[in-house]
């Protein structure tokens, strides 16, 4: 994700999926083959902190690695992590280089044409970050000439604002730390983006921050496996359900993100 907007990711995902349509389906390892090999190979993007990050020993760490390790331990197999980038997550699955992939794998229609998804592990919320001094209850409240939104140059929410919130002023800065600082200093009123990745920046300021309750969009991040690898997908679903029930996923999210998940991933509107 590299801190690009969630909507931006969806656009990228669509392009990837479209380019892969018609490609040959890889001969992915079955669940039986994985269990016999005693190794589960999972792709994680180490450039999406804190979902994935390199630690001080140059090992892949982060929320996704923590969950993948817990799943592998429960299955009684060794976890092998493979670094993947945003653009090669799906191709790695389709070329049989890995058994499963995480790394901000938002479930969407384009990707579902070429891979299968487990039930959601976590959510990403596109919403509004502001302060407790502002009265906003929903995104429509921002469509006013007196409102100054701050956004990061090149991100997709800018297009969303231009299309849906045209009356608001728009201050465009070069990066997220500067954007959050602008709100803390009173130079802007609010920011629209994937808030799960924004809240860490707010800790640097004594400002009383507020996330508007009504989200603009909620996406569900899952684990993707090769198309038709049903036994593996169902096994991962069992493990994910157990980790949600035990609270492991919730506590791991707090550990890595510093706050609770903003939306319940078990409230997914669609199961697969």
Automatic annotation (TrEMBL):
<keyword id="KW-0732">Signal</keyword>
<feature type="signal peptide">
    <location>
        <begin position="1"/>
        <end position="28"/>
    </location>
</feature>
<keyword id="KW-0614">Plasmid</keyword>
<dbReference type="InterPro" id="IPR001638">
    <property type="entry name" value="Solute-binding_3/MltF_N"/>
</dbReference>
<comment type="similarity">
    <text>Belongs to the bacterial solute-binding protein 3 family.</text>
</comment>
<protein>
    <submittedName>
        <fullName>Amino acid ABC transporter</fullName>
    </submittedName>
</protein>
<feature type="domain" description="Solute-binding protein family 3/N-terminal">
    <location>
        <begin position="39"/>
        <end position="260"/>
    </location>
</feature>
<dbReference type="Pfam" id="PF00497">
    <property type="entry name" value="SBP_bac_3"/>
</dbReference>
């Amino acid at each position: 994700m590299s801190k690009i907007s969630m909507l931006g990711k969806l656009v990228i995902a669509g392009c990837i999926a479209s380019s892969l349509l018609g490609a040959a389906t890889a001969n992915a390892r079955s669940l039986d083959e994985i269990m016999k090999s005693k190794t589960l190979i999972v792709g994680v993007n180490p450039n999406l902190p804190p979902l994935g990050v390199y630690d001080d020993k140059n090992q892949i760490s982060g929320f996704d690695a923590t969950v993948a390790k817990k799943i592998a331990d429960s299955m009684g197999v060794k976890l092998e992590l493979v670094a993947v980038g945003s653009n090669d997550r799906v191709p790695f699955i389709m070329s049989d280089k890995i058994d499963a992939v995480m790394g901000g794998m938002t479930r969407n229609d384009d990707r579902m044409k070429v891979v299968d998804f487990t039930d959601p592990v976590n959510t990403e919320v596109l919403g509004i970050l502001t302060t407790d001094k502002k009265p906003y209850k929903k995104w429509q409240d921002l469509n006013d000439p007196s409102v100054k939104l701050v956004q990061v140059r090149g991100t997709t929410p800018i297009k969303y604002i231009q299309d849906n919130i045209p009356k608001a002023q728009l201050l465009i800065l070069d990066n997220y730390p500067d954007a959050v600082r602008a709100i803390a200093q009173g130079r802007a009123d609010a920011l629209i983006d994937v808030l799960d990745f924004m809240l860490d920046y707010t800790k640097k300021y004594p400002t009383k921050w507020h996330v508007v309750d009504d989200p603009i969009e909620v996406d569900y991040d899952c684990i993707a496996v090769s198309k038709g690898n049903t036994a593996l997908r169902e096994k991962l679903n069992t493990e994910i359900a157990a980790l949600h029930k035990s609270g492991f996923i919730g506590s791991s999210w707090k550990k890595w993100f510093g706050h609770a998940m903003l939306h319940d991933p078990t409230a997914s509107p669609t199961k697969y």
